[in-house]
Each structure stands twice: as structure tokens, then as C-alpha cells.
Amino acid sequence: MEYNILEKESETKGSFYIEEGGSILAEMTYSIAGPERIIIDHTEVSEALRGKGAGVQLVAYAVAFVRKKGIKMLPLCPFAKATLLRHPEWKDVW
Asked: Cα(90)–Cα(88) distance, rounded to whole angstroms?
């Protein structure tokens, strides 16, 4: 299933998230580390979406986001890092 991923960003932080019925069901948060990098610090997926590919879609969205901005990411979140390692085609973003 393909999820509609939304994003929000402030001066120092941001997130990519899946919302349904006013509730956030999955979210990946990041910190802005200067003009050329974001740090992925946490990914959380609710029980309702666990095992349904929502987390991987959040990582894919983050990859597209940094590519579009021409920046890099540092995956401190263990889930994001493990997912990136399983996808060598995303090596250019971190």
C-alpha cells in the first residue's frame, strides 16, 4: 500500500509523517544540521501500520527530499540506517 506522506519543518527540526483521521500513525523526525545536511534521529510506526511498509516509505521519502534539496542525511536512527544499508541505490544521500 502506498501512503500519503506529509512533511513539516521549522528552523531547526522537521518530520515526515503519515496521518489518518487527525492522528499521526507513522513519523520520521530530523534535525537540520546546517545548510547541507539533515540528521534523521527517530522513526516511529504505530501498531496499525507496523509490518505494512510505512517505515520504508518514510525512508524513501526522506531520500527523495534530500536529493531534491541537493543535501545529505546522517541516519542516527537505527531503523533508517538499516533501511539505507539494504538499498545501495540510496548510498548517494548519506
From this structure: 5
